[in-house]
Design a protein that fits this description.
This protein is mainly alpha-helical. It has one domain. Helices cover 72% and strands 0% of the residues. It is built from ten helices and no strands.
Amino acid sequence: MDAILLKISVMLVPALLAIILHEVAHGYVADRFGDPTARLLGRLTLNPLRHLDPIGTLAIFIFGFGWARPVPVNTGNLRHPQRDMIWVALAGPLTNLSLALASVVVLHLLGFLDAGPLQNIELLQQIVRPLRVMAAFSLYINVLLGLFNLLPIPPLDGGRVLSGLLPARQAQWLSRLEPFGFVLLILLIFFTDIWSRLLSPLINHAIRLLAAGQYSYVQEAMRFLFGQ
């Protein structure tokens, strides 16, 4: 029981920041382009109660992947709906990738403390070690959310980006897939090799590239949290 609580305490802050800032970014960019819907509904806030989806939050601690309640966007309010929606959709994944880069910086700073002249100070190490696991998990969850959401399948952000780039007729056809998008994703992930052959290697390669010399710590953190 203590081990489960320890893992949850380590994962909680990075997970909440990853999914909440993803949604806030959508709403903020939409507001800047003329749609105040998210702001008027009080969704441009870091208050987790405004964003969390119970199942999506639970999934983070079980599978290492989750989601929040989508921020509503009224495309009719955007000044240039088709073009502006591209930026609104990209805002979420780009925020996650920015958080991933910030996590890398923190990992390297903590790695310096762990390997430098301060490594023999036990009290400092008791603080550094859990922080390093948090930073490693933050890198993992943000790369995963950023890249996964860029898949060109509605209702993922990549699907909305693709709709904005396509001619109107093809974009309309693609939008008709949105009600079936999650079913399609489940079929692709659980009944095809797309996760094992494409998505997982891509995510792992991106994490390895970003973490560089700290990659072994990311692997260690994943084994601790998920037994991987």
